[in-house]
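For the sake of transparency, this paper describes our internal protein records without simplification. The record that follows is passed on verbatim for readers who wish to inspect the format:
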Amino acid sequence: MLNRFPDRAAAGRALGTLLARYRDRHDVVVLGLARGGMPVAFEVASALNTPLEVLVTRKLSAPGAPEFALGAIASGGVTVINDDAMRICANSQELNCDIARQQAELQVRETFYRGDRRSTPIKGKTVILVDDGAATGATMRAAIRAVRDLGAERVVAAPAVASLPACALLQAEADELVCDVYPAFLRSVGEWYRDFSQVTDGEVRNLLARAADIAA
């Protein structure tokens, strides 16, 4: 059933229901993967009454095929490479150049999203990583490793929709996988949303501010 979700907010409400056992727990933090995961994560954090934070990730794309992920990087310098995709699509020099570009962009966005607001500590916490979808799983895998490096006690991977291969990879990396839709064949994450318009940097910043105001 394509177009299962009217939009990302609806996907977040669906995930919030699936994650209801984490509601009102003081040891839980919801992290949205910027940018597309943030509207989903905002609804999850609202449903669970937990803090919302952002984790900046950047996809490493194949030359000439921006939608095809070779891997991903996340905050803290974590890099995950899909070795099979790398053998097919790119050489190491192209990949290293892309990693340098994406790391620079990642740092700029982190600064913009948070401004002068301090991030919520996640050391010793259960971290729920939320995204609008996982086609290859590379971005979420990078996020999982990043939050483990930051001291997360337990990591829950929560993409709204994911391919079966991505689910297998995430189950191996995370302590728990929660996913609302996992089709046998996934052409693109966007086909499961009626409205899959691009999330802007301003929207990410505004969602973080709204969540902080609610928590206050």
Remarks:
- Helices lie at 8-18, 38-48, 83-89, 92-114, 138-149, 164-173, 201-215.
